[in-house]
Design a protein that fits this description.
By secondary structure, this protein is an alpha+beta fold. Helix content is about 40%, strand content about 15%.
Length: about 425
């Protein structure tokens, strides 16, 4: 039953203002005092790779005597679902939250503070990774993973087209796509019209952002000519694809389309290779990666540094056990496994060697270093990402023939209304 407390509008009015109120202490006698208990952890589809999950589960049980149940969630509608769950009397104990959405849940009082735990297990984490876990200087989550998109390509198709090297500039990339189109029966690029995190990376690359501060409040910046330039670049990419203009990369899963073997390339996260190989194991030798090239060879295309944090429910009854889980899940050994298995960027210097073992990580590194950024780390931003995502609507409108300026005028009132929610 949901508690009858004052609603917090930071997450579209669904998450009630809550505090831990001493409810999460529980009783224990050390890390091994939880025998027979079960911890519930919500993770998003595709986030927890098989080997990582297996070894974390085994280590957690050995350390505490408790078991962990991973419940996989879908991204569509997750903010509403998570908002409801975190305001229940019995929320999931640990939740994965997108790094751009953490501030909203923290501001609503739905997350437990984890400052002491961060000092214990994350003293050497990269500051950029941890930034999205902080709200008003307090630690309300711990960074699990982060990374950026790369070009995942089918080596076999590129060879069919006579392409022997990977592009170093955007114009070279477009010429390669054109060559594939002319010399093979493959689709050069599969890029749905609403891959908005890729679009946001392009926006960051033009020096713009999707919101701006005006009159003491956050408002849409979608009408900025620099944003229009980013959308023009996106249109050029999308012109090589027959993917739907009104769908995102998860509808259907673009890696599963790639797995059919007749797609030249994707703009993808490193972990999507595993999705493709699960659908078609025979492709293992055909998958390659390279950095998304920019206008010039010295600076890659702008990229969104996306990822997720782990947080402990502020209303949770098992907060001490949840913290023991985080000590295990975010240990150096298990962080190393995430880098190796899923292609995420290393969040501490000690994990650099693991990155060398994953070609997707190697391809992502140059853009992350030179051209990476995030959406605004403000509580109001979570509301913008809610379904229906207005930026996706903007993208589809432009791809359908509307000018960027007119599309922005149509969409900005909705974005501003969402940003105005406190």
């Amino acid at each position: 039953m949901k508690r009858g407390l004052v609603a917090a509008t930071a997450v579209v009015g669904m998450l009630v203002g809550v505090t831990a109120c001493g409810s999460g202490g529980g009783t224990k006698t050390g890390a091994d005092g939880f025998k027979g208990q079960k911890l519930t952890v919500w993770v998003m589809n595709g986030s927890n790779p098989a080997q990582w999950t297996e070894q974390v589960s085994a280590q957690f049980k050995k350390k505490t005597g408790a078991t962990v149940e991973f419940k996989v969630q879908q991204w569509n509608g997750i903010q509403q679902k998570l908002s409801t769950a975190l305001s229940e009397d019995t929320p999931p104990d640990v939740v994965e939250i997108g790094n751009t959405q953490t501030a909203a849940y923290a501001k609503a009082g739905a997350l437990a503070e984890l400052g002491d735990l961060k000092k214990e297990i994350g003293a050497d984490w990269n500051e950029a990774f941890n930034k999205a876990s902080l709200v008003d200087g307090k630690q309300y989550a711990l960074p699990w993973f982060a990374g950026n998109r790369v070009v995942m390509y089918n080596k076999k198709i590129w060879a069919e087209a006579g392409l022997k090297t990977t592009p170093r500039t955007r114009s070279e990339l477009f010429r390669a796509f054109d060559t594939i189109k002319k010399k093979t029966d493959a689709e050069p690029l599969y890029l749905p019209g609403q891959n908005w995190y890729f679009f946001d990376g392009l926006t960051l690359g033009t020096g713009a952002d999707l919101v701006k501060r005006q009159g003491g409040k956050w408002v849409s910046n979608l009408g900025d000519p620099k944003v229009a330039k980013a959308m023009d670049i996106y249109q050029q990419y999308q012109s090589f694809s027959t993917a739907p203009k009104n769908k995102d990369e998860a509808t259907p899963q673009q890696a599963e389309v790639f797995a059919k073997g007749r797609t030249g390339a994707l703009i993808a996260m490193g972990y999507e290779a595993a999705t493709a190989l699960k659908a078609n194991p025979k492709m293992k030798k055909d998958i390659g990666f390279f950095t998304i090239p920019g206008e010039t060879a010295d600076k890659p295309e702008g990229v969104f540094l996306g990822g997720s944090n782990f947080a402990v429910a502020g209303m949770g009854k098992n907060q001490e056990l949840a913290k023991e889980f985080l000590k295990v899940a975010l240990s150096k050994q298990n962080d190393r496994q995430m880098v190796k298995e899923s292609g995420w960027a290393p969040k501490s210097p000690d994990l650099a060697d693991a990155a060398q073992e994953n070609p997707a990580v190697a391809a992502a590194a140059p853009a992350a270093e030179k051209s990476g950024g995030t959406t605004p780390l403000i509580p109001q931003w979570a509301a913008v990402e809610n379904i229906p995502n207005p930026i996706k609507s903007y993208m589809t409108a432009v791809l359908g023939g509307k000018s960027p300026a007119d599309a922005a005028k149509d969409i900005e009132p909705e974005i501003n209304a969402r940003l105005a929610k406190q």
